[in-house]
Every structure is written in C-alpha cells, then in structure tokens.
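Researcher: Please translate sequence to structure tokens.
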Amino acid sequence: MTTNVDLAGTFQLGTRPVDRMGYGAMQLAGPGVFGPPRDRDAAIAVLREAVATGVTHIDTSDFYGPHITNTLIREALHPYPDDLVIVTKVGARRGDDASWISAFEPDEIEAQVHDNLRSLGLDRIDIVNLRMMGDIHAPSEGTIAPQFDRLAKLQRQGLIRHLGVSNATPTQIEEARAIAPVVCVQNQYNIVQRDDDALIDQLAALGIAYVPFFPLGGFSPIQSSKLSDAATAIGATPLQLALAWLLHRAPNILLIPGTSSVVHLRENLAAAKLDVSPALFAELSAIGAT
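Model: Translation complete:
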C-alpha cells in the first residue's frame, strides 16, 4: 500500500536509499530540548508511528535532552528495521542550565560518537554529522579539519558508515570533502530562510543530500499571510504547504520535521501528497525573496 511517505520519493543518502520525508527527534525531549518528555508513552508512540507509516530516516543527537532522544529511539525501535537510517550529530554538549555549549575538540568529538553508539545500541552509526556551533543556528567560518579528520578515522575503524556536516559554510563543506566523502549537509533553510539557495543546487549536482533543519521555522514557526492564503486555497495547513514547497524545491532535499504528537506527525507526512503546480511553486518561492 502506498503511504504519504512514499509519495515524497526517495534519495540516496550515501549507500542507503531513504524516503525524502523523514522525522527529526529533537522535540521528543522536554521543553527547550532539555530533560525528559512530558509524556514518555506519547514519545514512544510517535517514533513507532513514524516507522509504521514508512519513515526510513530519523535524525537525532545525544545532546538532545541530553541522552533523552537516543534512549527513546532505542526503547521504541530496537532492534531497528533493516531499512531505517539513523543520523546523529556531534560537536556540542548541554550545560546544567540547558545551555548549548561547543564541544569541538577532536577528543570530545570521538567521545560523543561513542556516547551515541552506546545510547542507540549500535555497533556502527549510519551517519554522523559534524555540527559546528557558529552563531548557534547560522554558520561561521573556521577550520574543521582536525575534527572531521577524527571522524574520518572513526569511519575507517568501522564505527561510522557515512559522514556529513551541519551548520556549515561552503568553504567548510569543501574542506570536509577533501578529507572524506560528505553525503549530507544539514543547515537552516525553509520557505522564508533561503540563504542556502545556491548551495542546495550545487550539492544536488554532486549527489549530496541537503537536510534543512527548522524546515517549519523551529522555535519561531513560519508566519506568512501569502502562505496561509495559498494553503487555504488548496485545503492544506500553512505548515503542510511549507513542507510541500521544500519537497518541490530540489530533489536532494530530505525533510526531518519534528513533533511529539502522533496527530501532528500524520499532518506533516500528509504534506507529501499536496499538488504544488509550477504556478503555485513560483508564488510560494517569491515569499522568501521579499
């Protein structure tokens, strides 16, 4: 039976084909991505519903919580389905006050990989993204060679299948690619945040996946009267249409919208069935250009 996830199509994430509509686990942690979920059973239910409806790409990190989302994923889904690709990220830690702190020394990077392996119950992680803190949600220049070289070493040891980067500049992406293959880039991008327009097209030509974080605006949800009006006209919610626009933006875009609600999860996945005509795509694209 064809599901909404199937309608989004697939893309090759390294050696693993994944559905372009995936799931991000960040919101399963407590408020501010810190501490346990308000409802642990509901969090488990969301993860199991995602996989049951065809999701094959789950994004997480051991600094969500910290140590919360990985534990939930393991409880809900281990032993993992053969077609499930779990992507994590390293490069940060959480303070006792819920602050986000750079943890970027090579030894710290290696320790985080081992933390993720333990918490997920894996012998090898499908993909590890090197997450630069930069301006938290915006990249800034600076060498990443020592850190990415350490990840490449762990990859050669068989602990990681593929490597990616997150919150990265084009220069950093090229620096990483000179060390080891990069299969995905995870940066902030959505219908109103369009700094990476040119980068997405360049990565598409290279066969590299682009995974936008905050595809719906993150902590500040997207608000646009033009988006709302267009969504009403086709019987969708504005956020569903924002996701559908991303799927039509480029074939290498993989979505990982997050939620702690089964109902909201189903709404997100239903975005894959929306018909975005060329005229509507052009109309929506103009939102981010103004």
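Researcher: Any highlights?
Model: The chain has eleven helices and eleven strands.
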